[in-house]
Amino acid sequence: MIKRYGTEGSEGTGGQALPFSRAVAADGWLYVSGQTPMVDGEIIDGGIVAQSTQAIQNCLDIMTEAGFGKEDIVHMKVFLTDARYFQSFNKVFKSFFAEHPPARVCCVADLVVDCMVEVDITCFNSKFKS
């Protein structure tokens, strides 16, 4: 069975409706769409630390809604707009995942949203397996 989260009412910058699910659960897996440091449809002010914290927290909020915990995170993808943000991002990452660090990839890329970081996660929990 596939369950989609956030297909109704998800908003991007400027309040535009987003054409994808915030997350999709299937057979014990949860795939959380890329999250930016957005609150109420707007990118938060602040540097890489504040933006990284918000982007990760947005992922965790979606996971919690779906019934998953940090210990269920298998993999995270991180997109930074500048390689110089890498060390600062790592400090934030460690503050969230010191006990259960997931596998991770981090790359530098242009983002379609005007922010410094975007993250997505993949989770697994056998209690949700069909």
TrEMBL record:
Transmembrane region(s): none
Domain of life from the UniProt record: Bacteria
Protein name: Bona fide RidA/YjgF/TdcF/RutC subgroup
Family membership noted in the UniProt record: Belongs to the RutC family.
Classification via InterPro entries: RutC-like_sf (IPR035959), YjgF/YER057c/UK114 (IPR006175)
Any single Pfam family the record assigns to this protein: Ribonuc_L-PSP
